[in-house]
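# step 3/5: fold
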Amino acid sequence: MSPQIGRAALGWATFLVLASGALLLTLSPGTPEFVVTLFTLCLGLLLGLIVVVGIVWTRRREKREGGSQ
């Protein structure tokens, strides 16, 4: 994973989580806005998880390839 792509994706994930988390505090449960915002929060968390797993996987692969030479 390119460092620029990972940084941009992590930035987007952070933005989604913070923005939707703040909005969830102001919305009342059961409304359509609440459901969409909750879905956005889940997508942000999923994106962040994918980025972190990608970073860990890439670093382990680079470490393994660098150590075998």
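# step 4/5: annotate
The mean pLDDT is 91.
# step 5/5: archive (pending)
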